[in-house]
Structures are given as C-alpha cells and as structure tokens.
Amino acid sequence: MARIDHEIQRVLSQLISTELKDPRLGFTTVVRVEITSDLKTAKVFVSIIGDRHVAAQTMKALRSASRFLRGELGREIALRHTPELTFVEDRTTERAIALHQTLERAAATEPKTP
What we know:
CATH superfamily: K homology (KH) domain
Strand content: 15-25%
CATH architecture: 2-Layer Sandwich
CATH topology: GMP Synthetase, Chain A, domain 3
Number of helices: 4
Strand order of the largest sheet: 1-2-3
Order of helices and strands: HEEHHEH
Structural class: alpha+beta
CATH class: Alpha Beta
Distance between the termini: 55 Å
C-alpha cells in the first residue's frame, strides 16, 4: 500500500506542476497520499504556499481538475481501479512556521541569566 501511495503521490505531483494550467492554481506540493484498502478512493494531502485566499482558490482548482487528474493517473499507473481523488489541504508546514515564530518571540523576551 505504501508503494502505491508513493507512486500516486509522484505522478500527481508531476501532473499538477506540468499539466494543470488553471490560473487559480497557486504553488502546490503533494505532501502525501492515503489510499483506502479497496483502492477506490485516495486522499491527496496538498501544501499550498500563500495566504488563505490563494489556498481557497487552489483547492477549488484542484477539485475542478480532479476528473482530469484521475484520468491521467489511470494512464500512468496500472491499477485495477483508478481511485477517486479527494484533495485535503495540509497546513502542517504553516503551523510549524507559526510555532517556530512563537518560540523565537518567547526566547527573545525571556530574561537573560548571568
């Protein structure tokens, strides 16, 4: 299953970066893919660089391109069934940056001990 997840991630990353020409699409990275055991559906976790408006527009673009991406995925990977794609925004990187900034501010305000 992990190999299938990784292969779908690789192919979708390539397709999104090279084949999609939607102007709503921001800088998008496919972080990971989780496919169900019956291979019918796949959750595609994407990280989007930009503000909330850019992220919302990118998610709309990905959802509208999901049928095209599924068709292309079926041509690239030989599976019995090409899974339905569900795109989920992964905000882990964004939260990690915010946490890092909070820790830096806390360290800067902490009194220095001699």
